[in-house]
C-alpha cells in the first residue's frame, strides 16, 4: 500500500480488517511533531502497511490532568502522516476503544515497574497506557509497533506487556528527537512560555552533566544532574539512575531518567549511560 496519495482514514474495526499484508503500527495521541514523524519513517520499511493511530486516551489522564486541553491538531496531523508515508490513519472514537466504558474494571495491570518513577507521580497512568495499547494491538493486529525512547518507562512496560501477555508483536524503540539546543520534542512543549522554553533545556543539560559523571557511579550522576537542574532553577520530581530495564543499576549499561515541571508542563527526558566499574554506589562484583 502506498502513502503517495495521502493516508486513508479509518474509524472502525471492519475497515481495519481490510488492511492486508504485514502491518507496522505507530500509536499516537496526535499533536504530531518531528519525533512522531521519525517513528513513522522508522516504521515505514518494517512492514507492507504502515498504520498510525490517533486517539487521545482518556484513561491515562488522571482527574485534574490535561485531557480536556490536550492539543488536537487533526489537519496538521494528517499532513504529517502523509509526509511520513503512512498508509492508514486509525482514528477510533471512545466507544470503539472502550465498548464497556472508560471505567471498565478489565484493565492491564502494569505490575511493580508501573508504580515507580512516573507511576509514583501518576498512579493510574500506566494502567491506562497499557490498556489502550493492548486494545490497539488487538484491533490493528500489527506485526511490529514503534514507540519513542523519550517515554522510556512507557516503552519498557509495553515491551514487558507484549512478552508477558504473548501478544506476538515486536516492540521497537526509537531514539529521542531533539531541538537544536537539546530539548526533547514533546507535544506538551507547546505549553511552555518563552521563559520556560529557555529553562526547559535544563533537562537535556542535566543528562549531559550526569553522563559526564558516569565513571564515578550513580550517586555522582544524580548529584551532577541535580546540580545542573538547580542552576536553571528547575526542581525535579525525580532524577533516577537505573539498569536499562529499570532495575537497580550496576556497573556498565544504565539509564538516567529525569522528570521536572517547568511552568505548567511536566517534562521527561532520559539517556543511556555507562557506569564505572569501581564507582562508589555500585554494588561490589558478585553481590
Ligand atoms: O505515547 C503516547 O502518545 C501514548 O501514551 C500512547 C502510547 C499512544 C498510548 O495512548
Structural notes for this entry:
The chain has 287 residues and is an alpha/beta fold. It folds into 2 domains: 8-174, 3-Layer(aba) Sandwich (Rossmann fold); 187-275, Pantoate--beta-alanine Ligase, Chain: A,domain 2 (2-Layer Sandwich), CATH 3.30.1300. The chain contains 10 helices and 9 strands. It has helices at residues 13-17, 34-43, 74-83, 94-97, 118-121, 125-140, 152-164, 194-200, 202-212, 218-231, and strands at residues 8-10, 23-28, 49-54, 88-90, 144-148, 170-174, 236-242, 252-261, 266-275. Strand 3, helix 3 and strand 4 (88-90) form a beta-alpha-beta unit. Helix 6 crosses helix 7 and helix 9 packs antiparallel against helix 10. The longest helix is centred in the middle third of the chain and has 16 residues, at 125-140. The radius of gyration is 19 Å and the shape is globular. It binds pantoate (PAF). Pantoate is lined by residues 27-29, 57, 60, 129, 132-133, 151, 154.
DSSP helix count?
A: 10
* Cα radius of gyration in angstroms: 19 Å
Q: What is the fold named in CATH at topology level of the largest domain?
A: Rossmann fold
The ordered string of helix (H) and strand (E) elements is EHEHEHEHHHEHEHHHEEE
Average pLDDT rating: 95
Bound molecules: pantoate
CATH class of the largest domain: Alpha Beta
Backbone structural class: alpha/beta
| Corresponding CATH architecture of the largest domain | 3-Layer(aba) Sandwich
Q: CATH H-level name of the largest domain... which superfamily?
A: HUPs
Distance between the termini: 53 Å
